[in-house]
Amino acid sequence: MLDLISAGLVSGWLKLAGLPTSFDPSEIFAQTTIQSPFWQASDRTAEKVVSDYLKLLSSKGLKPTEQGIWLQSGSHLLLSNQGTTPVPAASITKVATSLAALQTWSADHQFETLISSTGAIENGTLQGDLIVQGGGDPLFLWEDAIAVGNALRQLGITRISGNLIVTGSFMMSFRDDAVKSGELLKKAFNSKTWDEDIRDEFGEMPKEMIRPAIEIKGKVQTGSAPPKQILLMKYRSLPLVHLIKYLNVHSQNEMSQLLANNLGGVNAVIQKASTAANISPDEVRLINGSGLGMENQVSPHAACAMFAAIDRIMHPLNLSIADFFPASSIDREGTLEDRSMPARSVVKTGTLNQVSALAGVLPTRDRGLVCFAIINRGTDILELRHQQDVLLQALQKEWGADVDASVVQPSEWLKQTRFTPEQRLEIIANRG
């Protein structure tokens, strides 16, 4: 059974069509859950525009059979070209990782990093080791490390006689090697060792942030934590919704891989994502959680189904897919910096040496919210990206660009909520 319609997409379509938006999602789903084949909607507009697109690619030596395309409005399939065939999809893999994460943790989940010691604080010196137990935070940066260093100073620590021991799932500044992450953390704690790059980053931080100066005499070590510890503080990550948004806006590979690892590995990602999207696991063939490698293969249909699943799951929380993926004309940095897609399109990009992929939602007047996936094989990546943008512009022009695109914009309350490092820090131990 395949259920490709979502509460958010239905609500958005009704709003765009000028119809009442109050409905029971369970009743809508019951009426529109269908078996393959899909409700094929004959759409000559889509057929003509996509045919011209494929002819153009063919004139450049690219085979139409190697270009995967899927266009769907609600439960109606508008067009498919190799749509159910898994193909190398690059960072479209991150849609699966994002969906699996949201199936495992709540949207407001925060990962905890625990800071402990093996000894007491005497005259400013921590007599023993400092232990950093990572809890899977995929976005622990210089600002976070400096905040922890300042909190250690609040406890009266200016020197650590022992080692810095890194355990658990800890990654700093996207270094997936625990020792390298530990070395960065050690450097962050002692502003006397900062290089120009760190000083420049510090200059961009809030003015109330101060420079920590904590000397660690020992080395950075990894492994199991000592059995006897004194918990000093907890440091919580940004909520998962913010983490996933950052991950997808910047298509950050190490973040996505760390989430996949904490989910239980790639097989867990496949199982959770395919179950949530009601698709066959055969359409999501992965070797990692980031999309690096031609062996990561996703069908265009599966990409759309996973987008719809995220929207369906998040809709009851008043969150939209624009809270998790970049939206054209809103998120101007990251992967959309040089793109010219229709305004308010919500998308995920993907790029390898021979792959250019794009999947997401296109707002239109006549077809409502059209879920699309375009996965190209070819080597001229810049040209493929340009033609993808042109294809979406052509479809929106034919189906109507005068739409209320607010149905796919980020949630206002989420944009207004701030989670500073100080707000995410909880000191447990008393001042020494």
CATH topology of the largest domain: Beta-lactamase
Q: Which class do the helix and strand fractions yield?
A: alpha/beta
Question: What's the shape?
Answer: elongated
Beta-strand fraction estimate: 15-25%
Radius of gyration: 24 Å
Span from first to last CA?
61 Å
Give unreliable regions as ranges: 1-37
Return the CATH class of the largest domain.
Answer: Alpha Beta
Strand order of the largest sheet: 1-3-2-18-17-16
| Count of DSSP-assigned helices | 13
Q: What's the story with the biggest beta sheet?
A: 6 strands, mixed
| Approximate helicity band | 25-40%
Number of strands: 19
By CATH, the superfamily of the largest domain comes out as DD-peptidase/beta-lactamase superfamily
Give the name of the CATH architecture of the largest domain: 3-Layer(aba) Sandwich
What is the averaged pLDDT score? 89
Give the oligomeric state.
single chain
Task: Summarize the structure in words.
The chain has 432 residues and is α/β, with parallel strands linked by helices. The protein has two domains: 7-108 and 242-401, Beta-lactamase, CATH 3.40.710; 112-237 and 419-427, D-tyrosyl-trna(Tyr) Deacylase, Chain: A. It has helices at 7-17, 25-32, 44-59, 93-104, 142-154, 178-189, 196-203, 240-250, 253-263, 266-277, 300-314, 381-399, 412-416; strands spanning 39-40, 68-73, 76-81, 87-88, 112-117, 121-122, 125-126, 130-135, 159-160, 164-169, 215-216, 220-222, 230-236, 284-285, 297-298, 346-352, 355-363, 369-377, 425-427. Helix 4 (93-104) runs parallel beside helix 11. The longest helix is centred in the C-terminal third of the chain and has 19 residues, at 381-399. The chain is elongated, with a radius of gyration of 24 Å. Residues 1-37 have low confidence and may be disordered.
